[in-house]
Amino acid sequence: QVQLVESGGGLVQPGGSLRLSCAASGRIFIIGDMGWYRQAPGEQRELVASITSDGNTNYIDSVKGRFTISRDNAKNTVYLQMNSLTPEDTAVYYCHARMLSITWYDRWGQGIQVTVSS
């Protein structure tokens, strides 16, 4: 059973930074695309950033230039560096990975709270 475990969330003031980490563990064969989603209260979950296995990245417009997604394939870990945070970034952030065993399947982390407030 593969698990994704997130860390690094918390409370930060506007303009501050946080770095989220998500480590995959368990019976891992191949990890494809990885990404970070977020869901604010009363809102739908949205894709914030994604990264392919060979490092190609994609971001939603509202975080371009502020957030950076990266991954360490040797550690089965994906990161999200978040700078210049605003209250609008407040949400529960979820890690996602596309995994290959016999077939491709999706795995989600449990979610981690990020709160931007003064």
Could you give a short description of this structure?
By secondary structure, the chain is mainly beta.
Give an overview of the whole structure:
The chain has 118 residues and is an all-beta fold. It is 0% helix and 57% strand. The chain contains no helices and eleven strands. It has strands spanning 3-7, 10-12, 18-25, 30-39, 46-51, 57-59, 67-72, 77-82, 91-100, 104-108, 112-116. The strands form two sheets. Strands 2, 4, 5, 6, 9, 10 and 11 form a seven-stranded mixed beta sheet that branches. A four-stranded antiparallel beta sheet has the order 1-3-8-7, with no helix packed on it. Strand 9 and strand 10 (104-108) form a beta hairpin. The protein is globular.
Order of helices and strands: EEEEEEEEEEE
Strand content: over 45%
What ranges have pLDDT less than 50 throughout 5 or more consecutive residues? none
Largest sheet: 7 strands, mixed
- Taken from the alpha-carbon principal axes, the silhouette is globular
Q: Can you give the helix content as a percent range?
A: under 10%
The whole-number mean of residue pLDDT values reads 96
Q: How many helical elements? A: 0
Alpha-carbon distance between the termini? 40 Å
What class, by secondary structure content?
Answer: mainly beta
- Rg, please? 14 Å
